[in-house]
Amino acid sequence: xxxxxxxxxxxxxxxxxxxxxxxxxxxxxxxxxxxxxxxxxxxxxxxxxxxxxxxxxxxxxxxxxxxxxxxxxxxxxxxxxxxxxxxxxxxxxxxxxxxxxxxxxxxxxxxxxxxxxxxxxxxxxxxxxxxxxxxxx
Length: 137
Hints:
The protein is of the alpha+beta class and 137 residues long. The protein is 21% helix and 20% strand. A five-stranded mixed β-sheet has the order 2-1-3-4-5, covered by helices on one side. Helix 1 crosses helix 2 (90-102). The longest helix has 16 residues, at 32-47.
């Protein structure tokens, strides 16, 4: 299923993250989060317009105690924060993103996610609500 480039979900990957308990990389070496981003971005590029998601780098989700972190969001859908990740999860993140893109509300049960991501969801956030009119209006 090809998605319009404008309606694809966004997969935000923290490029400052490092694996929990791991030492920081030497100066000039990429973090684990940057390596995860690079791997996911390469997979997105290889898929071209068939990619289910747009991979976007970001800085710090303030989830450092849970390892590398990514966020998945799309207009009108629940957004998810996923942790305990490493560069080896890039392909599974894109598989999860494909299921997310197909789900009307973005809800993908653990059984619908790759095994490596079944317990990685840290939080979910509702889609922004349209401004409600005051009863007096």
